[in-house]
Design brief:
By secondary structure, the chain is α/β, with parallel strands linked by helices. The chain is 47% helix and 22% strand. The chain has helices at 13-21, 34-47, 64-76, 87-95, and strands spanning 26-32, 51-60, 82-85.
Length: 96
């Protein structure tokens, strides 16, 4: 278990170290507050060089407007760094 003391899950350097030590190249992200904690984690992961998969039906936010805006941004501005898929699509990828 790695503590998340700030918005980004990567604010604790132990997470990136663990993933690098285990040769993990792709980070699958789900969570609460699409437009706050999820965004911060996604941007940190991009900066650290990870491939990002966001599970779009496993996100939520206390702000529908913020959530919708970030989903649009992920699709239009970050399509080169971020892949969006549903939980069902991820399950299919893992089965292959």
């Amino acid at each position: 278990m790695i503590d998340k003391p700030a918005y980004s899950a990567f604010s604790n350097p132990a997470l990136a170290s663990l993933l690098v030590d285990k040769n993990v190249g792709t980070v699958v992200i789900s969570g609460a507050e699409t437009d706050v904690c999820v965004l911060s984690t996604v941007l940190s992961a991009v900066d650290l060089g990870f491939r990002i998969v966001i599970i779009e039906d496993a996100l939520c936010s206390s702000s529908d407007v913020g959530h919708d805006a970030l989903m649009t941004m992920y699709r239009t501005r970050f399509h080169g760094q971020v892949d969006l898929m549903t939980a069902e699509e991820l399950t299919e990828v893992w089965r292959e």
